[in-house]
Design goal:
Residues 1-126 form the Nudix hydrolase domain. This is 8-oxo-dGTP diphosphatase. There is one protein chain. By secondary structure, the chain is an alpha+beta fold. The protein has one domain (2-138): Nucleoside Triphosphate Pyrophosphohydrolase (Alpha-Beta Complex), CATH 3.90.79. The protein has helices at 44-56, 117-138, and strands at residues 2-8, 16-20, 31-32, 35-37, 59-73, 76-89, 99-103. It is globular, with a radius of gyration of 15 Å. The termini are far apart. It binds 8-OXO-2'-deoxyguanosine-5'-triphosphate. 8-OXO-2'-deoxyguanosine-5'-triphosphate binds next to strand 1, strand 4 and strand 6.
């Protein structure tokens, strides 16, 4: 089983950053959350700091754990671990993807996300509803 840490990065409009896997990779053309395989001796949070620097030249801080999803591909099982992730410094660059977009979770259905992401998006919808209603309350 491969553990994969994925970054849920939101902007002020509550849109989430997704990026497209380039030609030549498995699932080429699929959209995904930035992130990657957790290496030996590394926490998922450390993995996100490393991967976001490598993939997008972003300095990030992994925050709260949101949800995990296991999915069986024909080449093996992946477990996606999703964390709320904050940009500390930088603008996202396309170093390993061929496109990126900020999109609302409701609009994500229009993008062909990787199959493992589909059940995760359900959890994220619940998470963002709770988050935005909480923010609404604290704003008075
Ligand atoms: N980053 C990311 N990976 C995902 C998502 N959904 C999903 O099934 N995956 C899979 C694709 C890959 O098999 C794995 C992530 O590994 P990776 O990005 O480090 O590796 P890769 O396959 O792109 O390339 P490689 O390093 O194995 O050559 O998890 C997602 O939303 N984000």
């Amino acid at each position: 089983m491969t553990r994969v840490a994925v970054a849920i990065i939101t902007n002020k409009k509550h849109q989430v950053l997704i990026a497209r896997r380039p030609a030549g990779k498995v699932m080429e053309g699929c959209w995904e959350f930035p992130g990657g395989k957790v290496e030996l001796g590394e926490t998922p949070e450390e993995c996100l700091v490393r991967e976001l620097k490598e993939e997008m030249d972003l300095t990030v801080m992994a925050g709260r754990f949101i949800s995990e999803i296991s999915y069986d591909y024909d080449w093996g099982e992946v477990k996606l671990l999703a964390f709320e992730t904050h940009i500390v410094e930088g603008e996202p660059q396309l170093l390993e993807h061929d496109a990126m977009v900020w999109v609302s979770l409701e609009g994500m259905g229009d993008y062909g996300m990787t199959p493992a992401d589909e059940p995760l998006i359900e959890d994220l919808l619940q998470w963002i509803r709770e988050k935005t209603s909480f923010e609404g309350e604290t704003k008075g």
